[in-house]
What does this fold into?
Amino acid sequence: MVGRVSVEGAKKGFALPQVPKILVYIVGFIPAVWLFYAGITDQLGADPMRYLEQALGLWALRFLIATLTVTPLRQLFNVNLLRYRRAIGLLSFYYAALHLTTYLVLDQGLDMAAIVADIVKRPYITIGMATFVILVPLAVTSNNAAIRRMGGQAWARLHKLVYLAAIGAVLHFILVVKSWPTEPLVYAAIVAVLLGYRVVRSQMKKPSPRRRPA
Ligand code: HEM
It folds into this structure.
């Protein structure tokens, strides 16, 4: 079924067939399940820990980018996926948490001294941690009770931090690879377009200053 449906707190738009949100989570977790299966069955190549760490980080970034595409899709193409935005955003957080857990447990063996040294010494770890810290309040407040408690405006202001998280995530990716291969630059370009779109749109929406009578 494809058609127009009303969705939570949103303008009407062309919605894809409505599916239960739980399906978004189930599909969203397929890469994680596959990665862990491949990990325990020794299919992740010569350095399985590194492969797992990188793949989870990449999925966190992909879901973060997917979250940012929901608004332009609705405004430009009238495709309304607002109903699923929260689930997609939370998937990004869950993947980032798994990515962090892989780093803390498998990469660093929970050696707190080594972890602190890494955070201080390696800018990409510092930025990764800062990005994760930004994602935490966004994930914690991704529920209706938080919106009610905070009020819509304060909630929306807080959730603008997602833009900073996206910048942090691509910066982290670029610094991880150290040289300039295409992949992180492609992700950075996508984030730049998605954030640039918002800047342009907010400029266009600003009312032009009233002319004072001479
Ligand atoms: C929580 C703190 C974080 C830590 C400690 C961390 C750590 C790491 C490490 C150790 C790597 C692999 C470096 C290597 O290949 O040698 C990595 C890669 C990566 N991380 Fe993170 N990260 C963090 C947060 C994040 C977040 C929040 C995101 C995205 C939302 C992210 C996305 C990525 C990406 C895309 C890669 C590169 C994957 C690739 O090489 O294909 N990371 N991170």
Q: What stands out?
A: The first helix runs from residue 21 to 28. The chain has ten helices and two strands. Residues 50, 53-54, 57-58, 60-61, 64, 96, 99-100, 103, 107, 125, 128-129, 131-132, 135, 169, 172-173, 176 surround protoporphyrin IX containing FE (CB under 6 Å).
